């Protein structure tokens, strides 16, 4: 490539250079002692040996030389700028390189220096098969002088030839293109390989003219082809006629310029372009004779420019210009600018990178040879890219390198590649030897012909003319344009376009196809870089000249600049939904602000939900109103229900305000914001206050029920009323209102809009929401308090959890409360989390409010509605045929003012259904009626309350709406303690609730006592069962049996085991104003046994039932008698037994059950008859086993609630059970004598009662004694017992006879004499045993033994009456 920068020649410089040259030639001639004297004559080989030594070293560096003023430069004598000679070493061949350059070759020579230094580094360049031989280069680089001086060519050739000969150099490093023709013959003559930097084809033709000449540049004829191609593509689309004016102007003198433009013309013609005009000029001639050579003559050049694009050209005249010149183009450009010319394209030979860099104002028109550029990303082993090489140059030499430097760098590099290639299969390479012979040189030359190497400016390979074809057409070095970016070269690296020039170059390197897309190819006005935000006004371009015209304008409002591939900018309207915010010249539009409103769909959902709630509230309210007379509704306290409905609706109303939104705040919107918490808070208080109150009341009622049992007045129950709970609603409301008011006063919620995204300070996205400074605190307080309330409600629910009921509202309430609790707890954090998204936030809040209120309403009302609906259905098929509602009503409110109504209903039930009712039920109903009709109101209440369980149950179950235990619970919960239900409810509560302390098992009045026929009887019974009377040995259990309608065991058991509570309850029931503390008793219910009295009675009732009443002797009366007798004996013993409460209880319990299910026949009978029992118990204490087994089967039956020991520790239960079993088994008469002797033995021990086992033996003995106490009782009683036991014996005897079994002793009614049997029994069994007992319990000795003795006397006397002849002694 030739150098663009040329110093304009002037006369003085010319003269000086000539003088210097003459002087130099003289020197050279003298030094060489050559005969000739002509500088141009080549020196003989021998004479050249001293040439290198005669040349001085340069005093300036390459860069300094380029910076010299022209006159100094021209006077510079030839000098050696570099003589790099490495020391020879083993296996290293030093190959000389010669490089001769004119001064004007600029910095290009330094590239060769760089290359050689790098190649010589280390061992040098490895060659040969094993790469164990190396080559280093001896580079001699000489600046030969000013190429403009006369005779320079000769001088250049002389020095080159001399050095090649002197050094025997096989390689010449080519100099600048304009001296290539000088160097070419030297290479040919001396057969030195020569790499020329020349582009025109003729230099290489014919190929055989210079076999050692190689060309590193590609064919310069190919340079304009890319532009031609672009025009071709463009014309195919936009001007198919191809009559576009094409103007070609070139320097005629230079083959390079001429051939380049002619190549363009040939290509244009071939593409069918017709309107081509050629303007050529000789740069060194003076066509107009003004004394200035054409290349410098602005007038001549201006005329040429005018011809190409005249000043008066028509508006649609857009020629394509091809300019193959040097600096002349600068003048012509100025003219075209004046002419306001607007060409379709301009192609410039001189549009090299260097030129462009020096003429920044013409950069938009850079399009030409398409030379190597640092941005093109080639590399070699030393440098990753040309750019790195240039950086290296900067560090090494202190200046920015150029393209020429890269080219000269590549030449030694190629020589090294050549050597490596030539010797790659040689074991002992010796290049110098080869270069010394003609054959060797020819072989090496041929190797050079086939060399292919990647270099820092691309691939180098040679065609048949030994010219580089590696890169193809220079103009095709465009960069692929992908996705708006220019991609890199082969490394796909982003090219480093880091300044404006680079960016423009990128335009020039765009492929022809892409260029053709533009309306004007190149140089296109579109190449003009409009500043950001401005666009190229195409309309202006049509009327104005465009060369360097600044047609950039700012894009108007609401348009923005966009660019096509070819950099043409134009304004596009902003897309819908965006704007420039009133600014001109924007590069992008700012999207309209996204307000993030809640979507319409969601709002509709929200309103629908509110509508649903409103509808549900209305339905509920109407239902309430229409069913206001229904008991179910009335007992549910409709006032509270109305409040719940109203509260839920108010709370739900906040949904409406949640949907309020606006672009900016206003009073209305702010008010709506604040309305939400107000409605929610107030709604909560109104809705949940009643719910809480209901729960609270249930708890209070349940407590009151217990208090009642503890003897507190019924008044305390009545106090749990609406007033009491309405206070709670008020408190909740006041606290909620206080929080809300504080909020309102402190920092009311305002509508605020927060910018989420912005562009240039303009909001593009924002979220509007209700916010206040301390909203988290206030919201937290509001919700926190609500949670507290709900938590309290849950605690209340928990405390009343044992109150089960089919109907119970508390379950629903607690469910609703728990649900609400959950909703509030779950959604509260969601409010914070979903803040950014209004839609999510809205639907979460709306959903929470809706679900909360909806669920509460449903849970509260639906069960009720279903109940009422069911109750109104036709009567049950199971029950009698009357309206459940009408029946239920009076019964449920029987303690109210509806006694008469209730009675009326009962009458109707009895009258209308008398035929359908079973006899038993009829009787029960009559009892109820009797109670209702008798006595004053208060007594009636009591009576009704204490109706026997079965009766109460029955009379109510006859109605469809049965007042079972559960319904009682329901009534209790709903109405807060209706008296009619109190009894069963109280017992239920006691049964189900664990008492808080040991003394809370409470007072329990046996219902059967209450049911006693008259107050007189009650009084008698209560007297009989007083603690004092119970201790009596002459206690008349038969009387009691009679007075208690055949419930002796139940009463005695209750009186003894339930003492002192039973005595206290009876006293109160008889109207005595007494205190529990004044009563004596065992206090089993208050001891750590915590025997629940009602369960005890239930158990007694069952056990009593299981005694076989038909037995003359072994029936419930006997059991009651044994219990009482045992009690009496125990009391006689006082504290002497040292028995524990557990032991006393165990032995009494054993007494209760000791004969249960006794069949009325003895163990012997069982064994003889082989009854099932005998088989089960293997004939061992058969009946006793059965009794005690049955007792525990009943007690531990999980299907019933009879476990009186359920509050006793497990270990103690085992203990009690063990003791009871032992004791009952011990009542087996067959063990009697053994027992008596054992007890006697025990009594020998001192302090025998302190041993637990012995003590238990004694207690069992006492029980046994109570069991056989019939003959120890005062006469009337003992006779009665004797009759009964004899009756039972005879029945057994009858059976034995019937079964053919041996008749047991005393069982044959025909042979047995009563007195006889008794005498023996008393004399040998009872008396001695009681005497032993008397040894333990002194009172027995004093009070009982005499009676036994008396009885014995009586029987002896009786026997005498029956059969006086029989001697006493014979019995
Ligand atoms: Zn018995």
UniProtKB/TrEMBL annotation:
In this chain, AMP is annotated as bound at 1114-1118, 1155, 1267, 1318
User: Which first-to-last residue range defines the signal peptide?
Assistant: 1-40
Q: How is the cofactor bound?
A: Binds 2 divalent metal cations per subunit. Site 1 may preferentially bind zinc ions, while site 2 has a preference for magnesium and/or manganese ions.
| Enzyme nomenclature, EC number | 3.1.4.-
Topology relative to the membrane: Multi-pass membrane protein
| Chief location category | membrane
- Subcellular location field: Membrane
Name the active site residues.
Answer: 1114 (proton donor)
Q: Which GO terms describe its cellular component?
A: membrane
Binding-site residues for Zn(2+) 2, renumbered to this chain: 1155
Pfam families named in the record? 7tm_3 (PF00003), PDEase_I (PF00233)
Q: Where does Zn(2+) 1 bind?
A: 1118, 1154-1155, 1267
PDEase domain residues are 1087-1362
Enumerate the spans annotated as G-protein coupled receptors family 3 profile domain: 671-868
Q: Does the keyword Metal-binding apply?
A: yes
GO terms, molecular function: 3',5'-cyclic-nucleotide phosphodiesterase activity; G protein-coupled receptor activity; metal ion binding
Q: Which InterPro entries match?
A: GPCR_3_C, HD/PDEase_dom, PDEase, PDEase_catalytic_dom, PDEase_catalytic_dom_sf, PDEase_CS
Q: Which domain of life is it from?
A: Eukaryota
Co-factor requirement: a divalent metal cation
Q: Which UniProt keywords apply?
A: Hydrolase, Membrane, Metal-binding, Signal, Transmembrane, Transmembrane helix
Its transmembrane ranges are 602-626, 638-658, 678-700, 721-743, 777-798, 810-834, 840-862
Protein family according to the UniProt entry: Belongs to the cyclic nucleotide phosphodiesterase family.
**Which protein, by its recorded name, is this?**
Phosphodiesterase
């Amino acid at each position: 490539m030739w150098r663009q920068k040329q110093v304009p020649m002037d006369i003085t410089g010319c003269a000086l250079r000539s003088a210097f040259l003459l002087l130099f030639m003289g020197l050279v001639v003298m030094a060489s002692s050559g005969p000739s004297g002509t500088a141009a004559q080549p020196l003989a080989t021998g004479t050249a040996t001293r040439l290198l030594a005669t040349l001085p070293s340069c005093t300036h560096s390459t860069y300094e030389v380029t910076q010299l003023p022209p006159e100094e430069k021209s006077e510079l004598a030839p000098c050696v700028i570099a003589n790099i000679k490495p020391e020879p070493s083993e296996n290293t061949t030093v190959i000389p390189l010669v490089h001769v350059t004119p001064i004007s070759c600029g910095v290009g020579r330094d590239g060769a220096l760089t290359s050689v230094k790098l190649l010589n580094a280390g061992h040098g360049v490895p060659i040969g098969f094993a790469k164990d031989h190396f080559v280093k280069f001896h580079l001699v680089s000489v600046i030969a002088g000013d190429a403009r001086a006369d005779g320079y060519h000769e001088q250049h050739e002389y020095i080159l030839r001399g050095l090649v000969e002197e050094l025997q150099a096989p390689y010449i490093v080519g100099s600048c293109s304009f001296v290539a023709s000088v160097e070419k013959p030297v290479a040919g003559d001396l057969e030195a390989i020569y790499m020329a930097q020349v582009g025109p084809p003729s230099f290489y033709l014919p190929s055989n003219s210079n076999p050692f000449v190689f060309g590193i540049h590609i064919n310069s004829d190919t340079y304009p082809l890319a532009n031609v191609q672009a025009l071709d593509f463009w014309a195919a689309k936009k001007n198919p006629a191809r009559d576009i004016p094409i103007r070609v102007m070139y320097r005629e003198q230079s083959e390079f310029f001429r051939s380049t433009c002619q190549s363009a013309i040939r290509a244009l013609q071939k593409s069918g372009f017709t309107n081509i005009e050629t303007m050529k000029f000789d740069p060194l001639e003076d066509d107009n004779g003004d004394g200035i050579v054409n290349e410098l003559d602005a007038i001549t050049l201006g005329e040429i420019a005018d011809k190409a694009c005249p000043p008066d050209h028509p508006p649609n005249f857009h020629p394509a210009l091809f300019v193959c010149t040097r600096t002349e183009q600068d003048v012509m450009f100025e003219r075209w600018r004046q002419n306001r010319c607007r060409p379709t394209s301009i192609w410039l030979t001189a549009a090299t990178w260097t030129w462009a860099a020096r003429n920044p104002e013409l950069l938009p028109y850079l399009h030409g040879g398409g030379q190597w550029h640092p941005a093109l990303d080639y590399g070699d082993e030393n440098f990753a890219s040309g750019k790195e090489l240039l950086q290296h140059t900067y560090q090494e030499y202190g200046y920015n390198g150029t393209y020429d430097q890269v080219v000269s760098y590549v030449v030694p590099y190629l020589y090294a590649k050549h050597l490596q290639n030539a010797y790659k299969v040689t074991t002992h390479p010796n290049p110098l030897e080869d270069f010394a012979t003609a054959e060797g040189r020819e072989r090496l030359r041929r190797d050079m012909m086939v060399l292919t190497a990647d270099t820092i400016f691309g691939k180098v390979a040679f065609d048949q003319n030994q010219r580089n074809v590696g890169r193809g057409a220079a103009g095709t070095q465009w960069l692929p344009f992908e996705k708006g970016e220019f991609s890199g070269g082969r490394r796909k690296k982003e090219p480093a376009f880091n300044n404006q020039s680079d960016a423009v170059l990128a335009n020039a390197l765009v492929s022809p196809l892409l260029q053709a897309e533009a309306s004007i190819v190149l140089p296109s006005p579109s190449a003009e870089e409009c500043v950001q935000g401005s666009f190229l006004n195409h309309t202006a371009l049509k009327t104005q000249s465009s060369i360097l015209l600044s047609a950039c304008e700012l894009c108007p409002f609401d348009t923005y600049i966009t660019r096509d591939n070819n950099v043409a900018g134009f304004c596009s309207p902003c897309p819908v939904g965006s704007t420039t915010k009133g600014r001109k010249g924007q590069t992008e539009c700012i999207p309209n602000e996204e307000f993030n409103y809640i979507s319409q769909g969601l709002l509709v959902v929200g309103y629908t939900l509110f509508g649903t709630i409103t509808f549900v509230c209305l339905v509920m309210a109407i239902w309430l109103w229409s069913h206001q007379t229904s008991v179910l509704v009335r007992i549910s306290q409709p006032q509270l229900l109305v409040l719940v409905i109203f509260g839920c609706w108010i709370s739900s109303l906040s949904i409406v305000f949640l949907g309020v939104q606006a672009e900016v705040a206003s009073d209305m919107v702010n008010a709506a914001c604040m309305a939400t918490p107000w409605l929610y808070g107030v709604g909560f208080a109104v809705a949940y206050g009643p719910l809480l109150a209901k729960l609270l009341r249930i708890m209070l009622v349940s407590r009151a029920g217990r208090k009642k049992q503890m003897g507190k007045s019924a008044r305390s129950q009545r106090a749990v009323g609406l007033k009491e709970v309405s206070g709670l609603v008020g408190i909740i409301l006041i606290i909620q209102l206080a929080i809300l008011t504080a909020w309102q006063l402190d920092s009311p919620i305002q509508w605020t809009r927060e910018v989420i995204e912005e562009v240039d300070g303009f909001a593009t996205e924002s979220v509007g929401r209700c916010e206040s400074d301390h909203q988290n605190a206030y919201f937290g307080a509001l919700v926190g308090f609500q949670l507290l309330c709900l938590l309290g409600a849950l605690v209340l629910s928990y405390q009343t959890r044992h109150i089960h009921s089919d109907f119970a509202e508390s379950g629903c309430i607690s469910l609703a409360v728990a649900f609400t609790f959950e909703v509030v707890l779950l959604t509260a954090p969601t409010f914070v989390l979903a803040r950014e998204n209004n839609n999510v936030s809205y639907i979460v809040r709306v959903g929470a409010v809706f679900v909360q209120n909806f669920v509460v309403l449903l849970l509260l009302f639906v069960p009720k509605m279903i109940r009422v609906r069911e109750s109104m259905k036709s009567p049950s098929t199971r029950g009698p045929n009357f309206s459940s509602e009408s029946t239920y009503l009076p019964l449920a409110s029987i303690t109210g003012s509806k006694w008469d109504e209730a009675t009326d209903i009962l009458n109707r039930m009895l009258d209308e259904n008398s035929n359908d009712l079973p006899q038993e039920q009829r009787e029960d109903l009559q009892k109820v009626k009797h109670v209702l009709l008798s006595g004053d109101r208060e007594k009636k209440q009591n009576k009704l309350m204490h109706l026997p369980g079965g009766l109460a149950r029955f009379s109510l179950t006859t109605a469809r709406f049965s007042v079972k235990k559960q319904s009682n619970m329901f009534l209790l919960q709903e109405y807060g303690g209706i008296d009619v239900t109190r009894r069963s409810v109280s017992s239920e509560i006691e049964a189900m609730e664990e008492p808080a302390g040991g003394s809370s098992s409470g007072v329990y009045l046996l219902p059967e006592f209450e049911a006693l026929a008259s107050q007189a009887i009650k009084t008698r019974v209560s007297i009989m069962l007083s603690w004092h009377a119970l201790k009596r040995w002459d206690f008349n259990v038969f009387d009691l049996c009679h007075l208690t309608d055949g419930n002796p065991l139940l009463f005695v058991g209750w009186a003894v085991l339930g003492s002192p509570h039973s005595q206290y309850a009876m006293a109160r029931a008889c109207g005595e104003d007494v205190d529990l503390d004044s009563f004596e008793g065992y206090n089993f219910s208050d001891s750590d046994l915590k025997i629940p009295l009602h369960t005890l009675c239930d158990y007694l009732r069952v056990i009593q039932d299981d005694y076989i009443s038909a037995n003359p002797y072994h029936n419930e009366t006997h059991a009651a008698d044994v219990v009482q007798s045992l009690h009496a004996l125990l009391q006689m013993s006082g504290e002497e037994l040292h028995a524990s409460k557990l032991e006393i209880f165990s032995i009494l319990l054993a007494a209760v059950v000791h004969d249960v299910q006794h069949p009325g026949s003895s163990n012997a009978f069982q064994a003889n008859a082989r009854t099932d029992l005998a088989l089960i118990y293997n004939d061992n204490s058969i009946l006793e086993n059965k009794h005690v087994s049955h007792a525990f089967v009943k007690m531990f039956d999980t299907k019933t609630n009879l476990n009186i020991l359920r509050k006793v520790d497990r270990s103690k239960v085992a203990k009690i059970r063990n003791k009871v079993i032992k004791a009952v088994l011990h009542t087996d008469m067959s063990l009697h004598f053994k027992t008596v002797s054992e007890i006697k033995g025990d009594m020998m021990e001192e302090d025998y009662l302190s041993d637990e086992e012995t003590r238990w033996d004694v207690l069992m003995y006492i029980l046994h004694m109570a069991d056989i106490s019939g003959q120890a009782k005062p006469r009337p009683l003992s006779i009665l017992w004797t009759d009964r036991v004899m009756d039972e014996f005879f029945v057994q005897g009858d059976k034995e006879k019937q079964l053919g079994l041996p008749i047991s002793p005393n069982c044959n009614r025909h042979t047995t004499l009563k007195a006889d049997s008794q005498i023996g029994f008393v004399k040998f069994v009872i008396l001695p045993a009681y005497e032993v007992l008397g040894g333990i319990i002194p009172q027995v000795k004093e009070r009982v033994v005499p009676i036994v003795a008396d009885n014995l006397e009586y029987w002896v006397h009786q026997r005498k009456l029956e059969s006086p002849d029989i001697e006493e002694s014979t019995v």
